[in-house]
Amino acid sequence: MKTFSFPVTSAVLMLLLAVGCTSTYKPVILVHGVLSGPSSFKTLTGFIKKAHPGTEVTAIDLFNNENSTKSMWEQIDGFAKVTQEIMEKSPEGVHLLCYSQGGLICRGVLSKLPNHNVQNFIALSSPLAGQYGVPDYLRNTFFLGIKSVYVWCYGLLKYFSVCNYWNDPHHHKEYLEYNKFLPLLNGEKTHSEMAEWKKNFLRIKKLVLIGGPDDDVITPWQSSHFGFYNNKESIIEMKKQNFYKKNPFGLKTLDTRGDLIVCTQSGVKHVEWHSNLSVFEKCIQKWLD
Ligand SMILES: *[C@@H]1O[C@H](CO)[C@@H](O)[C@H](O)[C@H]1NC(C)=O
Ligand SMILES: *[C@@H]1O[C@H](CO)[C@@H](O)[C@H](O)[C@H]1NC(C)=O
């Protein structure tokens, strides 16, 4: 027996050393935006690994490119499954960073997964209160005109992802009645799972909202901070929104707890958010500890 004790002891020692050398940074999960995929996060993954060596970063490879226009609920089910698998291998918890449309997908995932261990959730330029605008590069070719989009979005195109968060401030009644995604997620319309979703969502430690005035896609850009248009297209900021004041999904709770962080950066276009080092250093890095 004695002959075995040395190798066993050294194996235990090596294991202890290995554990000691392992990074203490939690794994990071990245969720991409519309008409995009995990490859869009190459630069960001580099930033994270350089700042926090040893971090395990997973850009989820699901609903890429054209598949990212499928209905939000369908995508949420898919992303929830993969997120769950990663979390089960990471009992210490993970961080979730979600870009653009991905921010709404992640909110759905966090609302629906009862035992998730997401610590910090970062929504990077996401249309959290909805979208009412067409990017400049589409405007000239856009045959409908923005005012009639709601007819399509709340009707025939209701399974098109962008329509799931199309929020026409001039047709709020139709939005509440026919949009089966955002009004439920934001608790603007009551539903039977509201309390459960809120409880699940509030398992996160911090909510970090990142956006800025030079974003040329998210409209209004304040939607990245839960602000939105009223029916005169004036901006109503987050704290004056009913979904903040009535607290149906926990936004006000997080704020009161001191766990809501808002980061504003000017000079950044929509497609640049995940590749800009100043944004990473100012708004992201410290929340990925
Ligand atoms: C989209 O989904 C289909 C079916 O699930 C799959 O065959 C296809 O490869 C996907 N496309 C992309 C770009 O991932
Ligand atoms: C990052 O954004 C800032 C504005 O906040 C800008 O001045 C800078 O040039 C950008 N950097 C890159 C590499 O695009």
Task: Give a description of the structure.
This is palmitoyl-CoA hydrolase. One of its GO terms (molecular function) is palmitoyl hydrolase activity. It is found in: Lysosome. With about 290 residues, the chain is α/β, with parallel strands linked by helices. The chain has 2 domains: about 160 residues, Rossmann fold; about 55 residues, no CATH class. Helices cover about 40% and strands about 10% of the residues. It contains 13 helices and 8 strands. Helix 3 packs across helix 4 and helix 4 crosses helix 10. Bound molecules: 2-acetamido-2-deoxy-beta-D-glucopyranose (2 copies). One 2-acetamido-2-deoxy-beta-D-glucopyranose binds next to loops.
Count of discrete structural domains: 2
Percent of residues in helical segments?
Answer: 25-40%
> Can you tell me the CATH class of the largest domain?
Alpha Beta
How far apart the termini lie comes to 44 Å
Which distinct ligands sit in these coordinates? 2-acetamido-2-deoxy-beta-D-glucopyranose
- Report the β-strand fraction as a percent range: 5-15%
Low-confidence stretches: 1-6, 15-21
* CATH architecture level-2 label of the largest domain: 3-Layer(aba) Sandwich
Signal peptide: 1-24
Main location: other
Protein name: palmitoyl-CoA hydrolase
Organism: Oryzias melastigma (Marine medaka)
